[in-house]
Structures are given as structure tokens and as C-alpha cells.
Design a protein that fits this description.
This protein folds into 2 domains: 125 residues, no CATH class; 53 residues, no CATH class. It contains 2 helices and 14 strands; from the N terminus they run αββαββββββββββββ. A hairpin with a 3-residue loop joins strand 1 and strand 2.
């Protein structure tokens, strides 16, 4: 009896489904699983600052210039290609050929030299900071400045566009958090990796070499060269 009862329930259930489907014998399908879109990584350019003729601080994106002139370090990351919400950033040269300046419009007395990248026009993404093109009123030199530096004689002047700040030639800029006897120090220069870790004054993690720290490793694709968050290896 029990088996017949289950068969009867099954037949009634099938008839109810067929009725709901207009008499069709096809089984109803559940909600389709949305296909997950693969995000497109944003390719970034590194804005370097070099020193030309001992006094002209110039922004560079090419390895040729970076290798010819004394390098002062990385200043910002900005997108490599134009897109909605981005603004062209250009490098200009004055008419006497003695000073370079960066901006989204041509300064008086300067001419267009080359495109440097396409920074964001709004600072809505986490970690973005305003690009600042500072002026030394004594020498007349314009220079792109990282938020972490302050050069004597230069006054700040925002360009009104945004990029990810770099840290010039600093080895470490520490973010420290302490609680319950544990102190964790993270180094912004190395992508925010755990730089040192202490428990009641005893050190458990050290920064002897890049690549040996506790860190996240997140990247797109199968090519290991796309691993943008790897702290690297000093040796």
C-alpha cells in the first residue's frame, strides 16, 4: 500500500507540472545561472621623475629617459589607455627648452611634448590620490610630487586628476596596528605586505628580503607576470 501511495502522489505531481506548462510533457527549468563576466584589468603606467641638467625635475614614462637621467623614483601609477572618467595628462616644455611641466592643459609659455597617461578625473576608487604639480618659485621649476614627499622651495598645486601614489625612493612607509600584545607593521612601499610582526615584543616576521613577507597574491590570467601584488624579491 505504501508503494502504491507514493506512485499515486508521483503521478499527481507530474500532472500538476504538465498542467502548469500548458499540457506539455517538458519539465520546467530552474532559473538560469548568470555567466560571470571576467573583469578586464586596467593596465597602468608608472610615472617616474628624473633630473635633467641638475635642476629640471621631469616626469618620464619611458625606460630610455629613465636610464639616461638621474632617477628620483616612482611618483604615481596612472592608466595606460583613455576611457570614460579619465583625462589625458601631458608633458610640456617651455619655449627656452629649460623646464618641463605636467598638466591637463598647456601652461603659458610651454608647448606640448608628449602624453604621460590617462589619470582618473574623480577619486572614487579606493587608494587614489590627487596628482600635484609643485612649483619652485625661485628656480621656476615644475615637478610632479608624490603625497609622501615635501621638497624645500616647492609649493603645492593640484592638477585635479587622480592616480595611485608611489613613494619616490623610500624603502619603507609603515602602517602599524597594535592590539592584545600583537603589533603588525605593513609597508606601503611594498604593496602593503606584512613587514614586521611582534607578539609581546618578540619578532615573528621580518623583512630581510622582498618575497619573504606575508602577503596577498591576486592576479588575472595564467601568466605569472600578471601578478601585480607580489612584493618581489630583493635578491
Amino acid at each position: 500500500m505504501t508503494g502504491n501511495r507514493f506512485k499515486l502522489i508521483g503521478i499527481v505531481w507530474m500532472l500538476a507540472i504538465m498542467n502548469a506548462c500548458g499540457g506539455s510533457t517538458s519539465m520546467p527549468t530552474g532559473p538560469s545561472t548568470p555567466s560571470s563576466a571576467v573583469p578586464t584589468p586596467t593596465v597602468l603606467r608608472t610615472l617616474y621623475r628624473v633630473l635633467v641638467n641638475g635642476s629640471d625635475r621631469m616626469t618620464s614614462v619611458g625606460s630610455d629617459e629613465r636610464n639616461i637621467f638621474p632617477l628620483e623614483g616612482q611618483i604615481y601609477y596612472v592608466p595606460d589607455q583613455p576611457a570614460t572618467g579619465r583625462t589625458p595628462l601631458n608633458r610640456y616644455l617651455n619655449t627656452s627648452g629649460t623646464d618641463h611641466a605636467d598638466g591637463i592643459s598647456v601652461p603659458v609659455g610651454y608647448n606640448m611634448e608628449e602624453n604621460l597617461g590617462y589619470p582618473w578625473s574623480q577619486g572614487t576608487l579606493p587608494g587614489l590620490d590627487l596628482l600635484s604639480e609643485d612649483l619652485n618659485s625661485t628656480t621656476g621649476d615644475y615637478a610632479l610630487m608624490a603625497p609622501s614627499e615635501n621638497l624645500s622651495g616647492y609649493s603645492s598645486n593640484s592638477l585635479g586628476v587622480y592616480g595611485y601614489p608611489r613613494f619616490v625612493n623610500a624603502d619603507e612607509i609603515i602602517l602599524s596596528l597594535s592590539a592584545g600584545g600583537i603589533t603588525v607593521e605593513s609597508n606601503k612601499v611594498a604593496g602593503g605586505v606584512v613587514w614586521r610582526w611582534f607578539w609581546n615584543g618578540m619578532e615573528f616576521e621580518n623583512n630581510f628580503a622582498y618575497g619573504g613577507e606575508i602577503q596577498a597574491a591576486f592576479y588575472f590570467g595564467k601568466n605569472l607576470n600578471l601578478n601585480t601584488t607580489e612584493a618581489g624579491d630583493l635578491y
